[in-house]
Write a structure and sequence with these properties.
The protein is mainly beta. 0% of the residues lie in helices and 52% in strands. The two termini are 45 Å apart.
């Protein structure tokens, strides 16, 4: 009776095909995708050479290959929704694969169209931008129409007012598009002082500047910071003064400017607070919560990190959003965290919700199929699993990626299938080695099975795993009478051209007739000697990936009788 163990070690990728390619991991790659009601902005950085970018917008697809950085900006019709998707594919073995998609929400109004009115005690200003032809602006002050004019694309109007009295005013903007019609109205307040008598103060960081204009000669000024008088001056015949003083920029400072004119009616005091110097935000890193692995785990089981004065955390449908407080910022690269706009970071649920469940393996049975050793595998598919998504690896005692002895022939297999037996060499001490590496001695070989089932639209996956102890390492065809032969397929480059090579080894003790048929041609080999091979390299006249099979017919004498066996060997050429 076999013993079936289930555990929580992560998926071990199956190794299959004609070869395995590896690549050095790329530098940290970053992605920024910002859709709005009237634009789509994509910025990529830190990618290795050969990375590909695919943008699909309203069904139209564009692709680019890039090295380092790449960006696109697309203006969109603001009045309609737009379907979009972004896919970034880094070269094999490099980090940076990324995908995102969505649908924009239409703007209520055209963001490029604007109109505003500012009414002060001494002035009325109207601005209109990007309005359609035929739009009209009507300005009325104190019951009198001051202007009635067309406004196409851009308009600017300024009206001076008597600063000593209040004024009733209105501005009517009439557009051919009724949704753009606007009306403003109100009543101005009298100014405290004649607007021509200007006192302008700029108090920022470590500098306080004072500019006074229009006052009569002899007007005295007193400039204070806190309770300290930092400047006392008198305006000369020019009527103009400008001065500058140093202030403490680490915090807001109270300031005042007192104007003392000969005419007491012109006296005034302006006051306020300075704006402290800008301080670069402090870089902080979000806390990644612990991963939940219970079979029934969901995003609700993830415990959010505690909010701090620097970072707050919130739970969303997409994952956990970390928001920096004022004065703080996140680094451009946050490991599993990705940029989410407005300085936020997003940790998708798949990074911390990784349920691990037991997988039921019904049977693993070695069989001899017409002289070809094989293993029949029957696994109960977990609920929600798609057909052809089983992963199977022959592994050593440590069960890790580096301990994979044989892959299962691909990254997705049926739950009930016949797999080729991968051939082992057994020694007198009970250890075994894979036939391709006799020096690799293993005391134990098991079969590791796994299948990932997407949950909630793929926001995370539930991984089902089982370890079948004591994988069949004895040749199921050891007692088979024959004829015995093996088939090896590979790709070869000869003089810069791609060839598909087939080698059939006669493993019996009599001559054999061999026929080989491939998608690239066929070949018959009469009287192949015992221990010899039939070999043919077929020219591959395509650059596209090819998936198919090689059909081999092998005829030889077995105990005085002519016996024919056929074998089909699948292959895949990467183009």
């Amino acid at each position: 009776m076999k013993k079936l163990l289930a555990g929580t070690v992560g998926t071990v990728l199956a190794l299959g095909g004609l070869g395995v390619a590896t690549a050095t991991p790329a530098a940290a790659a970053t992605q920024y995708v910002q859709p709005s009601c009237n634009s789509l902005n994509v910025s990529l950085d830190g990618y290795p050479a050969g990375s590909t970018f695919t943008l699909t917008l309203d069904g139209e697809t564009e692709t680019a290959t890039f090295d380092g950085s790449h960006g696109v900006w697309r203006d969109l019709d603001f009045s309609a929704p737009h379907d979009w998707s972004v896919v970034v594919d880094a070269p094999d073995g490099a980090d940076g694969d990324f995908s995102d998609s969505g649908t924009t929400t239409p703007c209520d109004t055209d963001p490029d169209v604007s109109a505003w009115v500012v009414a002060s005690c001494g002035e009325l200003v109207t601005s209109v931008t990007q309005y359609p032809e035929g739009s009209r602006v009507v300005t009325t002050i104190d019951g009198e129409v001051r202007q009635d004019t067309s406004a196409a694309l851009a308009y600017w109007g300024t009206w001076s007012l008597d600063w000593q009295v209040a004024h009733d005013w209105s501005v009517v903007l009439d557009s051919p598009d009724d949704s753009l019609d606007r009306t403003w109205s109100g009543m101005t307040e009298p100014c405290r002082f004649d607007p021509r008598l200007r006192v302008d103060v700029n108090a920022y960081c470590e500098t306080l500047t004072v500019s006074v204009d229009g006052y009569p000669a002899g007007t005295e000024l007193a400039v204070r910071v806190g309770d300290e008088v930092v400047g006392e001056v008198a305006i000369d015949e020019s009527g103009y003064f400008w001065g500058e003083w140093a202030v403490d920029g680490t915090a807001a400072q109270a300031w005042s400017v007192e104007v003392d004119a000969v005419d007491d009616a012109l006296d005034r005091t302006e006051s306020g607070l300075s704006e402290p110097c800008w301080v670069p935000p402090t870089t902080v890193e979000p806390v990644t919560p612990g991963t939940v692995t219970d079979c029934a785990a969901t995003p609700d089981d993830v415990v959010l990190p505690d909010d701090t004065e620097a970072i707050s955390y919130s739970r969303t449908d997409r994952g956990i959003v970390a928001t920096p407080s004022a004065g703080y910022e996140f680094p451009l690269w946050g490991g599993a965290w990705e940029m989410d706009g407005d300085g936020r970071l997003l940790l998708r649920w798949r990074a911390v919700v990784q349920p691990r469940c037991d997988l039921e393996v019904v049977s693993v049975t070695p069989v001899c199929d017409e002289g070809a050793p094989a293993v029949d595998v029957v696994v109960s598919p977990p609920s929600g699993a798609d057909a052809g998504t089983l992963e199977m690896d022959w592994v050593g005692p440590n069960e890790g990626y580096d301990d994979v002895v044989y892959g299962g022939g691909g990254f997705g297999q049926p739950f009930t299938s016949r797999q080729p037996w991968p051939t082992f060499v057994t020694y007198d001490d009970g250890t075994v080695s894979p036939s391709y590496s006799p020096e690799w001695r293993l005391e134990d070989v098991d079969l590791l099975f796994g299948v990932s089932v997407p949950v909630d639209g793929g926001s995370y996956s539930r991984y089902h795993r089982a370890l079948w102890e004591d994988a069949p390492t004895a040749d199921p065809c050891a007692d088979d009478p024959g004829p015995h032969f093996s088939v090896d397929v590979s790709q070869r480059w000869i003089a810069g051209k791609l060839y598909f090579a087939v080698r059939v080894l006669n493993e019996g003790d009599s001559t054999a007739d061999v026929s080989v048929e491939t998608p690239f041609g066929r070949k018959h080999f009469p009287r192949v000697a015992a221990g010899a091979s039939a070999y043919q390299a077929f020219a591959v006249r395509t650059t596209e990936p090819v998936e198919g099979q090689v059909d081999v017919s092998f005829t030889a004498d077995v105990d005085g009788e002519s016996v024919t066996r056929a074998r089909s060997v699948p292959f895949w050429l990467g183009g």
